[in-house]
Amino acid sequence: MESEEAILREIIIKIGGKGSEALVPILISKSNLDEFKLAEKAKMTINQLRNVLYKLHANDLVSFTRKKDKKKGWYIYFWTLNKPKALKYLLEHYGNERKQLENFIEVRQKKNYFICSNCHIELNEESALEQNFECVECGELLVLKDDRADIKKISKDLEELDKRITHLRGLVSKFELPQRKVKMKEKIKKFKKKGKFVQKAKSMKSVKKFKKYHERKAGKKKRR
Question: For residue 74, what is the DSSP state?
Fold first, then answer.
């Protein structure tokens, strides 16, 4: 199965285009990278780099902070790759691809398709009927297409895609697990604080009741 770097390279190329793969080993190794140093390491001009980074940022795959250069007076941007978001982006892409493959198999199993052996033009049964089962390009008689080979190939592609999806989910959960632990710790702290507050409130109520009881008792004695 592909490495984490190979998967991230696939995502960045899909969004950033050719040439953007040079950023992958740099972005995955560090965070808060100076864009000028990043451009130098990736052997890109600053404009080429920004063009790729803006595309990635539009999909929430990278984030940035900026600091003002005290000597030069302009702002320098520092970029960080959002690995969990990047992996989820590809996971969503694979999910859509999977639906398309499933839909192809389902349609091909239910409907007949016809093809021209000369022009290789393919038509569904309704369209072929409208053309009297003749090719509009060469006039050749359309023949019923045997989709078994295509269905077999797509089924294999689907199996391979499922393996990649499972592997990708494992990588996503690896990043999400520490975040879940942090959130759980925060919740426990809140519950503990809430518990202390409740205990304090209860004790305060008991003190007030005790005071009121003695005040009433003292009042009765004075009346006597």
Answer: S
Using CA of residue 95, residue 11, residue 54, residue 73, what is the dihedral sign? positive
Evaluate the CA torsion angle 99, 101, 104, 106 in order and state its sign. negative
Q: 38 by DSSP, 3-state: which?
A: helix
Tell me which long-range contacts 193-202 makes (C-beta under 8 A, separation of at least 24).
Answer: none
Report domain 4-81's class.
Answer: mainly alpha
Out of 20-29, 67-76, 89-98, which region has the weakest mean confidence (pLDDT)? 67-76
Write the pLDDT tens digit of every residue in 163-191.
999 998 888 888 776 555 545 555 566 66
Tokens standing for 213? Answer: 């009881």
Through-space distance between the first and last CA atoms of the chain, rounded to whole angstroms = 92
Q: Where are the alpha helices (DSSP H) in 111-147?
A: 125-130
HSE at residue 134, side-chain half, CA atoms within 13 A, is: 6
For 45, the 3-state DSSP assignment is coil
- Please state, in angstroms and rounded to a whole number, the distance separating the CA atoms of residues 176 and 88: 11
8 A C-beta contact, residue 161 and residue 91: no
The residue with tokens 């390491």 is 41
How many CB atoms lie under 10 A from the CB of residue 67? 11
Domain ranges of the chain: 4-81, 87-183
Give the residue-averaged pLDDT of 178-206.
58
List b or e across 29-46, with b for residues whose CB sees 16 or more CB atoms inside 10 angstroms.
Answer: eeeebebeebbeebebee
User: What pLDDT, on the 0 to 100 scale, is given for residue 215?
Assistant: 66
- pTM score, whole prediction: 0.66
